[in-house]
Every structure is written in C-alpha cells, then in structure tokens.
Amino acid sequence: SNFQFINAYTEGQLGIIVLNRPKVLNAINRQMVSEILSAMEEFEVDDRIRAIHLSGNGRAFAAGADIDEMANDHAIDFELRNQFKDWDRLAMLKKPIIGAVQGFALGGGFELALCCDLLYASDDAEFGFPEVSLGVMPGAGGTQRLTKLVGKTKAMEWLFTGKRISAKEAHQFGIVNQLFAKEILQEETIKIATYIAGQAPLSIRLIKESVNKAVDTPIEEGMHFERKNFYLLFSSEDQKEGMKAFQEKRKPIFKGK
Ligand code: HXC
Asked: Which residue's CA is the closest to the ligand 1 atom numbered 17?
C-alpha cells in the first residue's frame, strides 16, 4: 500500500491494517491517524470486505499519541486543525472492527484500541493512560469510553495514577474479549475476524449500530431503535436466504443485500 505509517491490505473478505512505525513504538502522529481512516474508509465502501482487522507490530500496538509532534502545540492549534475529526470518522464506520493488541497500548494507543468493536490481546499486553504524568489527559475518548466500559471506580484510579493495566486485568474488567499467547494472537484473531465476516453482513452492521446505541440511550429509546433495525433486516435477501437455508438444512450463502 502507499501509506507511510501503516500497512493496509486485503485478505479474502478482510481488510487488514497494521500500524507500522516500530522505531517509536507506533507512536500515533496525525498522518498515521489520517492513513488509518483512509484505509478503513476504502474498506468500508468495498463490497468484498466484511470486517476490518487492526493491529500493531513489534513491541507495541501503539505507545500513544506522538509526544514530539504535540509537545509545542497550543490549544488553538488543536481547535484550528480540528484535531479529532478523523477520530470522529472512525466512530462512524459501520463495518465491524476487530483489534489485536500486543505489547503496549498506551494513551492514544489505548484510545484507538477502545474504538474497536471486539478487542483481543496477547497475554503480555499492557494498557494504560499515562497522560497524567505528561500534564495532559486523554483527548480521543479515553475518559468516556473507559468509564462506560469499566465504571467510575477503576477508570478514575487508572486515569489518576497512569498505572499500567496488565492483559489479565484488562480481560477481567471486560476491556478485552480474550487473551492469546503472543505468537498466535495475529493468526487467531484473523480467524475470528474471518468467522465474523462469514455472518450475514447486514445483521452485523445493524447489531453494531444497535449495541452502540445502548451505551448511551435510555432503554426505551434503545428498544425502539433495536426494533426498527430488526424489522429492517426482514427486507434483506440474506434474511430470506438464512432462514430458507436453515429449513433446507444447508449452509446459507450471504450476499450482504
Ligand atoms: C513519541 C515515543 C512515544 C510517544 C515511545 N516513543 N512512545 N515517541 N511519542 N508516545 C519513542 C521513544 O522516545 C523512543 O525513541 C522509542 O519510542 C522507544 O521507546 P523507549 O522509551 O526507549 O522504550 P522503553 O524504555 O521500552 O519504554 C516504552 C514505553 C515508553 C514505556 C512505552 O516509550 C513510554 O513511556 N512512552 C510514552 C508513553 C506515553 O506517555 N503515551 C501517552 C502519550 S500522550 P528513541 O528515539 O529515544 O529511540 C497521548 C495523548 C492522547 O497519547 C491524546 C489524544 C490522541
């Protein structure tokens, strides 16, 4: 691919992105965020692609936003360049994103991991928000996403101390779905992504939307939203195919239509 800080390619029905700035532990500069979004949005409009896999390499998923790039920034620089517009676009993507964290996921790297729909990690992965030691705080959703995920008690502790969260702890608190040995993380999570890519794409799409809706919506409104999406699936060809295949005791062939 013609990216500088990531590798992006397709493999069957998967769009695969590997952060690739290993000399600085995949520190995330603005160019990298923009490349991640370009790649993801290409996958998003590619009918062949049904799931996106995101990982780092070497010793890190990503050790945070690039400190060198922002050390001299002022508030107005962020405002004028609308610093987080790419992060907002990331949250708008409809295809499922499967993240695989090996090594460090710190600061902005942890925030990027928290943007994934399913998150896996190697058993030596380390998460954390060290911003407090730099005189800043998370700015790409960290205080919001972590708190919604684990509750105020642990979020406040981890954000106040900047203390590292072990893979085991991250798993216990529901931050990651499952842990794998480092050597098999990539291979196993590609398998999971491939499996998800084999499910009815419209179901995955509307489930993602509905589950995300639940996070910050009163239950009545969320129930209504879910119901409309449920109805909508019955106007898809895949619903007819999926149920017919069940009745005919064969495997369905989904078209994403
Ligand atoms: C720029 C970074 C970096 C970062 C590591 N490097 N993290 N450069 N920004 N976030 C660079 C180091 O400077 C070093 O470069 C090289 O990567 C290897 O790192 P070392 O520190 O030598 O490795 P090690 O001693 O093993 O320590 C690993 C580490 C440490 C614990 C992860 O690198 C570290 O504390 N990094 C910063 C983590 C952090 O504070 N992240 C939050 C950033 S703020 P050289 O050239 O010396 O070899 C943030 C705000 C988000 O993310 C806001 C919204 C996006």
From this structure: 24
62 neighbors 112 (Cβ within 8 angstroms): yes
From 25, 144, 161, mutation site for ligand 1 pocket: most ligand atoms within 8 A of C-beta: 25
CA distance 88 to 86: 5
Complex ipTM over 0.95: yes
User: Would you tell me how many other CB atoms lie within 10 Å of the CB of residue 73?
Assistant: 11
Both structure tokens of 115: 């943007």
In 3D, which of 80, 165, 44, 68 has the Cα closest to residue 114?
165
Amino acid 50 reads R
pLDDT digits (tens, 9 = 90+) for 141-198: 999 999 999 999 999 999 999 999 999 999 999 999 999 999 999 999 999 999 999 9
126 assigned to active site: no
C-alpha 37/C-alpha 80 separation (Å) is 20
Question: Dihedral sign, CA of 193, 198, 199, 203?
Answer: positive
